[in-house]
Design a protein that fits this description.
The structure is a homotetramer of 231-residue chains. Chain A starts with 9 loop residues before the first helix and ends in a 10-residue tail after the last helix. Chain A has an eight-stranded mixed sheet, sandwiched between helices. In chain A, α2 (85-94) packs parallel to α4 (158-169) and α3 packs across α5. In chain A, a hairpin with a 2-residue loop joins β1 (35-42) and β2. The radius of gyration of chain A is 18 Å and the shape is globular. Chain A has five helices and eight strands, in the order αβββαβαββαββα. In chain A, 29% of the residues lie in helices and 20% in strands. The interface between A and B is medium-sized, with 30 and 31 residues.
């Protein structure tokens, strides 16, 4: 296995540190929440992922670990990777083109993913429809569409959650040309996962999803009775 | 045709790059959304406009193209101009004094332009009335007035949208002295267009409209039953 | 009359320029809105006030004028002072201790000052009660009190508005020791005026009022039916 | 008694000054509100705490005093410590592991702590349940729990409030291993107190509580009738 320093991972680490500073400043990665990864090898699958419990506003070069497809640390260090490492690996396996995976904890994502759940068991989908900004998600070329963002019930059991994600995404073809079947998912009252071919694309999709979450949530607070004066 | 470097357009490009950084930071131009232009020639009409698909937080000097009145690239480059270039050209033609056109995607503009549409077909007008800040729009000298911001249904067909804009603005005299008949328009669930004699004026109007959109939208969330204690 | 450069006004100008940059950044002085002044002489009364129509994010040293008690320019320049100069002079006359007057246009102040007006004629008072942060207003030493912020109907006639302010403040003793009778006022759908013995105190009161406006307005959006679990 | 300069307190002061700048910028410590402390000695108990009435955006090295367990200044200076010093001392006594105490005045904390009080007498508890971000509070390892944040009625009598806090916390074992029984408390329409083994932990908990307050408050503004499309 190549050392971390001799691979492109040397650059991804600085890029992920910049993501941490930015996302903390924008309120999406407070405290030690969130975790980020970059795929540094496809065969065998290996990712560089944030270490467990680090403050995202001041990530150091040592606050990352390299893991294999099963989420096991494979860089010889004794650092612990993020508790949710397995989800990063699961996404990287399900989405062949994924080069980076970002997970954030924003207010709007947290609120929307937990809103109005009839049974206390958050399941289902957040539908985002009709916004021009949907075109910021990879492969979407019109506002006249919708994105159904899966919402998974939260758990601390990553094996179990990983299995649920695999179940729900079974049959989706992420290798097909054009628009991917899904661009991300929410964990209820927890946060957002999205990914991209590279870190820039994943970052852009975080930004786009956050914008859309804010629009959807704020729109719900407007009274339905007030209407435009149509012409 | 003069080269880009030998015209005033050299400066506009740096000014538009600064606009991009600022508007991204203020949440009005996330991802690759938004597009900006400056009129660099009136006879024949030519604009410098952002190239297609660029991240507005980090526009480079090459992320712009020069287009003619029909929106065709005329600087000899093979760059593609923004998909909405034709709207910039249409505005520049309809408003003889326009020296800059700015288009942004803000949460409040997106929300208000799509709020409470009875039929799913966004048409009509957003009326903004009685605010002192209306005086920030060119030619308005009192709060005791209103601005009717046209809202156009969104589309991906710029020829069709351009024709609708021309139809709605037919008969409006943008060359008359004093207050212009319209200072901008919204595209539903999409964003705002405004313009100014120069970039500073267009930027100021973006700022003013954003303020007014926020006030109108937030005011709608306040319960009507709570009232001042009149004296 | 001493020149501007040989008086303490030289420093106030830089202080007011810093206020402009800060308040623009915080969203309280967008576009050319807002105006600020410092009392530079009490006998005779003279103020340095922002010139008319200047962008508050980039005030230059020449964007100020010196005016007398009647709001007339008295520094020999041909600059025009802010349209609302007379209100600054009126406040400086009514409040003997006032060393600085700040006027801002914030979203929350604009929204609250225009909310829920039964007749379309904004009159009355905004009561702010029970907040610890009230102690940030000069002379208030307990949360167990209220501040009644006068709300004046907006107008473009400063002589008329000045007379209304004088009428409402008649009989209030701003020279009495302890808590002043009023710390500021709102103009409906327009903005806030406050003042202080110096610019630092006036700036602090803007900050405090803005906080209180936000708390009052956001509290109104919370449904009354949801309650704490009392213990 | 060792001088301030020869103890670790020299560093805490700069750390607290940085906290002030940061928290002012984030809107949690406006004007002269808020106060912060670090435990610099456990036997006897001594704290360095912000002096009374200082602007938190620009704390100087002299804007702190050293106090004993009773809140009395013990550094030989004639500076006055913050009016709420006694609460810092009470917390440091009740929580043996506390190395730093932070008190902030944020909009969301102020609003939630005073929301929907049936009798005007704010008592009770704010329950925060089911959020992943709860794991940012020391010792919490799952989202599937709740934090009951005590809300105390506000007062200017710190002796009385200190006694109420002691009464409510009587019987809670803050020395037990694992999750502490309480991570902070609110004073109604006033603000938040939290603490940590060191300043970094206390700062992180402020950040986490603020996030949770925002989520709880904003969630209440969403209409309950709108629901996900469950799958």
């Amino acid at each position: 296995m190549p050392s971390l320093a001799s691979t492109p991972a040397a650059d991804p680490i600085d890029a992920l540190r910049a993501i941490g500073r930015e996302f903390h400043g924008r309120g999406w990665s407070l405290g030690t929440s969130s975790n980020y990864s970059v795929v540094v090898s496809r065969d065998p699958l290996e990712l560089v992922v944030t270490a467990s419990g680090k403050d995202k506003s001041s990530l150091g070069r040592d606050d990352f670990v390299r893991v294999d497809a099963g989420g096991r640390v494979c860089d010889g260090s004794d650092r612990r990777s993020s508790a949710e490492t397995l989800l990063h690996c699961t996404i990287a396996q399900l989405v062949p083109s994924a080069g980076a995976v970002l997970h954030t904890h924003s207010p709007w994502g947290t609120i929307l993913s937990g809103a109005d759940l009839p049974t206390g068991q958050p399941v289902g989908t957040l539908r985002i429809a009709g916004y021009e900004m949907l075109k910021g998600l990879e492969g979407i070329a019109t506002h006249d569409t919708h994105e159904d963002v899966p919402i998974f019930a939260n758990t601390q059991d990553m094996e179990e959650l990983s299995a649920r994600i695999r179940g729900r995404f079974a049959g989706l073809d992420f290798a097909a040309p054009g628009r991917p079947p899904v661009h991300g998912f929410l964990i209820a009252r927890h946060g957002l996962y999205t990914w991209g071919r590279d870190l820039a694309e994943a970052r852009r999709q975080i930004e786009i999803f956050e914008f859309l979450f804010e629009c959807v949530a704020r729109s719900r607070t407007l009274p339905a009775a007030r209407q435009h004066q149509p012409q």
